[in-house]
Amino acid sequence: MVNSTDKKEKLHKVVVNDCYGGFGLSRRAIAYLKRQPEVIELIKQGKIENTGNINDYIASYFKDTDNRSNPALIRCVEILGRSASGEFANLKIEKFKGDKFKIAEYDGWESVQTPNDIKWTKVKPTEDNKDKKPTNRISMENMMWVVSKSIPSVAIGTLMLKNGITVHVTCPEKNMKSGPYKLSVVCKEKETDVIPMKDVTASLVKNHRKDRKYTREQVELVMNTMSKMPQSEIEKYTKPQSAKTVSMYNNTTSYSRTGTR
To answer: What domain range includes position 237?
Structure first.
């Protein structure tokens, strides 16, 4: 059952019945057990009764599969061999790895089982039982879109982040959903300050473009990264906002969040 040459894990011993019939101890085995210190201590503790026929109580105690790894019973079978078995039994010692076992029985024939003997079946994930983890990722779908009155056919998307900064993206009106987009970010508490996206995106976006035009994925990367940026980090990038930028953001026509009028 167990490869005894594997010495990485200690092997434990347990007594089982290796034939049809049932576990049973011979008179010679019970006489041997009565002299063992472990059994004497069990009798003192009252775990084995010492009234009436004590031999029956000893036999009953060791028939319980929870007590089959008792050192006294192990020694009894090792020393007495076949003569330790009762009339309808054939007791033998099984070795197993680990510290947990159970004894399975069929018509009196017993075998040792451990957790490693159990073959588990995994539940296959379905659409109903898949763990759906909520996502806090910021998407451009959350933006409020407007059209600038001062610059014809230019759309502006706006989204305020939790850490007090507002992201603005601009693009041709016909490209609101596809881009490419230009970026600027305004601090909420310092409305006259704007973060120069040329500096920020150079550290956040691979293949930084000199024309400051970015894809939808790159814009969302910047928004999600900056939403976790502390105020002290944001202030490193701030600078006064131009009057032209303020005018462009103030002269707009509203669109819905989906980017349609």
So the answer is: 140-254
